[in-house]
Write a structure and sequence with these properties.
Elements lengths: L2 H32 L3 E7 L2 E7 L5 E7 L5 E8 L2 E8 L5 E11 L2 E8 L5 E10 L2 E8 L7 E8 L5 E6 L4 E7 L26 E8 L5 E6 L1 E4 L5 E6 L2 E7 L1
Antiparallel strand pairs: 1-2, 1-17, 2-3, 3-4, 4-5, 5-6, 6-7, 7-8, 8-9, 9-10, 10-11, 11-12, 12-13, 13-14, 15-16, 16-17
Length: 247
């Protein structure tokens, strides 16, 4: 091989390596951009949900303020897993109420809610299908057996499209946009399952129907404004105006 050809080969190899490094840097920057964490939801009327995270970017505590039921919910970890959550009142005083999480195969399979007296108030039992929460069973205070509470269905993108309350026979159906949910990077999102649904994209239609008569009980249509990273910054619909901020 001539000297000129050798130099050309070296130059060509250098250019390929440089482009590869540049591509990797762009991918890394893109991945970093996607790691956006929800800071607060302004619910209107001076009511807020505030979210705080630990050094591993898992939820540290959630705070509800500006309502008649203000609270702070603090999460405690063991070996990287949430073991319990304790409640504090609006003045930062412990209420004595707590939630204890039970695991199997690295999944939360049960939540035990305790009263301030130390008695078990409620138990929620979770089952999964391919790592997606599928059913919730429930046992209330002084009840002796678990009973079916909720069945959850998903679409091919892992979005909740139906939540059926098996005790009230009310079915809630959801449809979504294709932008990023504020909870996309919230871990573990099962701790929010009582209050929120859209963990992949954002719900644009929420329809409650009677499971027996299929009569529509209530329907909410929602629209959003998004930031440059395609996360919502404002939600409007049915006289509900929410605003989102991020870290």
């Amino acid at each position: 091989m001539s000297k000129n050809n050798s130099l050309l080969l070296l130059l060509f190899t250098f250019l390929i390596l440089s482009c590869s490094e540049s591509d990797n840097e762009i991918k890394e920057e893109s991945n970093q951009e996607e790691k956006v964490y929800l800071k607060s939801i302004d619910l209107g009327s001076s009511a807020f949900y505030n979210f705080y995270y630990n050094n591993e970017n898992s939820v540290d505590y959630v705070e509800l303020e500006g309502t008649q039921n203000d609270f702070t919910k603090k999460f405690y970890y063991e070996n990287g897993k949430i073991k319990r959550a304790e409640y504090f009142d609006e003045n930062g005083n412990p209420t004595g109420s707590k939630e204890v999480y039970v695991y199997e195969n690295n999944q939360i399979i049960e939540r035990q809610d305790y009263l301030s007296s130390g008695e078990v108030d409620e138990i929620y039992q979770y089952t999964y299908n391919e790592n997606l929460l599928e059913t919730i069973n429930y046992k209330g205070f002084n009840q002796t057996e678990l009973s079916p509470l909720e069945k959850i269905e998903y679409d091919s993108e892992g979005r909740i499209i139906s939540r059926e309350n098996l005790q009230s026979n009310i079915i809630t159906n959801y449809s979504y946009d294709h932008q990023k949910s504020p909870f996309l990077n919230f871990e573990p999102n099962i701790v929010l399952i009582d209050d929120f649904t859209g963990f992949v994209n954002n719900p644009i239609s929420i329809e409650k129907i009677n499971g027996e008569s299929t009569e529509i009980i209530n329907q909410i249509n929602l629209s959003y404004e998004y930031n440059i990273l395609n996360f919502p910054i404002k939600r409007t619909g049915n006289d509900q105006n929410w605003e989102y901020t991020y870290y």
